Automatic annotation (TrEMBL):
Ranges for region Disordered: 62-90
GO biological processes: carbohydrate metabolic process; glycerol-3-phosphate catabolic process
Molecular function GO labels: glycerol-3-phosphate dehydrogenase (NAD+) activity; NAD binding
GO CC list: cytosol
Protein's recorded name: glycerol-3-phosphate dehydrogenase (NAD(+))
Compositional bias annotation for Basic and acidic residues: 63-72
Protein family membership: Belongs to the NAD-dependent glycerol-3-phosphate dehydrogenase family.
Residues covered by the Glycerol-3-phosphate dehydrogenase NAD-dependent C-terminal domain: 302-351, 376-470
Keyword Mitochondrion part of the UniProt annotation: no
Domain of life: Eukaryota
Parts of the chain that traverse the membrane: 351-377
EC code(s) of this entry: 1.1.1.8
Provenance organism: Populus tomentosa
Amino acid sequence: MAALLLELPPPPFLNCNHHQFLSKTSLRLHNFPSKTPPPPPPLAFTPPTTSCFLSTVTSSSISKEEKEKEPHSTAVASTNASDEGSQQDRRKVVQIAWEKLVRWSRSWRSKNNKTDLLERTNKVVVLGGGSFGTAMAAHVAYRKSSLEVQMLLRDPLLCQSINENHCNCKYFPEHKLPDNVIATTDAKAALLDADFCLHAVPVQFSASFLEGIAEYVDPGLPFISLSKGLELNTLRMMSQIIPQALGNPYQPFVLLSGPSFALELMNKLPTAMVVASKDKKLAHATQQLLASSHLRISTSRDVTGVEIAGALKNVLAIAAGIVEGMNLGNNSMAALVAQGCSEIRWLATKIYYMLLVKIWVVSPVLILTISSPFLFLKMGAKPSTITGLSGTGDIMLTCFVNLSRNRTVGVRLGSGEKLDDILSSMNQVAEGVSTAGAVIALAQKYNVKMPVLTAVARIIDNELTPKKAVLELMSLPQVEEV
């Protein structure tokens, strides 16, 4: 111990101010100079107390390993500080972006908050008493308590349930309807002085239903179609069925579509849909009528795209249900739905240029005079519509969620049940069953190959088993994705 004390330099605090020593010691601890400072001149002294001496030893005898570790520690600290600064910068960017979005939203609402249409609307009639028609009737009635909402039905017992118990005992026995929802079987009384008409009759029955009430329909009454599908024999869509059945080619028409289960709409869960019309003003008027705090309504002028996507997604949902019923796994499900989406896009966006090209080869001048009529021979939907709410949005909801009627049909088919038994046990219409054949006829008309949807049509016609259909689809040529 004595030898150790003799080898150590004398503690500097004996000849200097104590605070100055601490400052110098602290400086030496943090800076670690590469050269050892010269020792102070020798002094005669009495050894200090143990505590002071130990602090001196600690400050002046740092190991070589500690000195080597110090640059790494400094780099880590610098990196951490840099990461923290970057994270703060990112948070700031996100905060600014969100604040801009909120300001834009408030500004837009203040400029476009038009409630005059709802204030001027006194009566809305709903054709049909199914689940979605009932949900939309309740939704519109909640928008304005003084609004008269009349449901035109064929079932007197259902009318009695709605008028006396304020509920649709067939589809929503546990949901109370607003008091301003009234049901009737009298078409003339229901349509008298109506401002809007919501059409919720299944596609296959729409023409005959509308023909029976056509004499009571005002030529200027806007029809908002909630029905999705294609008429089996004629391949007509609702935008064609409604004006033709009413005998008025200029009947105002709007199509409402998108991912929307009736039950969730009744429960006022957040939902987003699209209204499509060639008449931009009518689309915006429908938007004002229907949009609320839990229902977002976008507008579109692509009626064809919205209709085709809404019709074909029901057939694709049956295919998705078959995959689920056969327990083919998630890989198969994802591949099938992706393929189905492509098939819908191929058909909806198909434009016939083949004949025009042939004419161009014969006479470029002639094509200028006759091209316009041939350009109508197309579906001509916008690709953005197929990937939007009424396309991909509705497809995902219908294919992946158990509430879907069409998916349920597919699950039971994949499990081995017969189609007739499935349909007889359902109290709602699965539009995809009747639409499947029409879809394939439409695909042949436009020369589009649709393997998945064609397989569904074959299964529904009992000409192909689900297992055989899967084997055939998996045996198709390996081709480039388009």
